[in-house]
Amino acid sequence: MSKSSWTDERIAVLSKLWGEGKTASQIADILGGVTRNAVIGKAHRLKLNKRASPIQTNRKQKANPQIDLPTNVTTGKGISLLELKERSCRWPNGDPKKESFNFCGLGAVPGLPYCAEHAAVAYQGSNKKFNLHIDPSIDEVDVEKIVGEQS
């Protein structure tokens, strides 16, 4: 497209249609002889008002699901980082920048870094199909077997 195709009349039509909320493709079709990208570029150079993308405005807003987190989650033993053992719950308590910061320290569920209570908070599914089920009969988890099954 040559520079001369943007006459004052065409710029006025572009500005009017842009203000009405027409898409760049619709404006290009109405003007004829220009592409959608040419319309977007000219609107940008004219510093026409920015607006939301039609794709974003057409999307339905998904409601944020309410997650019921337990309000009375235990803080556990309250042990320091140096006191953590292999089978200790690593749930953090408090602000890491403060001296009172500590970890739960209760017995961790085999194969997880948290005790059963904290694992239930940490491993919530994205939908109702997922439920964390901790089998109390399992003492150890064979990581090699799990990794091998995923391949």
Description:
It contains six helices and two strands, in the order H-H-H-H-E-E-H-H. It has helices spanning 8-20, 24-31, 36-45, 54-58, 116-122, 143-150, and strands at 92-93, 102-103. The chain has a two-stranded antiparallel sheet with strand order 1-2. The protein has two domains: 7-58; 70-136, no CATH class. Helix 2 packs across helix 3 (36-45). Strand 1 (92-93) and strand 2 (102-103) form a beta hairpin. It has 151 residues and is an all-alpha fold. The longest helix is centred in the N-terminal third of the chain and has 13 residues, at 8-20.
Q: What's the short story on this structure?
A:
This protein has helices at 8-20, 24-31, 36-45, 54-58, 116-122, 143-150, and strands at residues 92-93, 102-103.
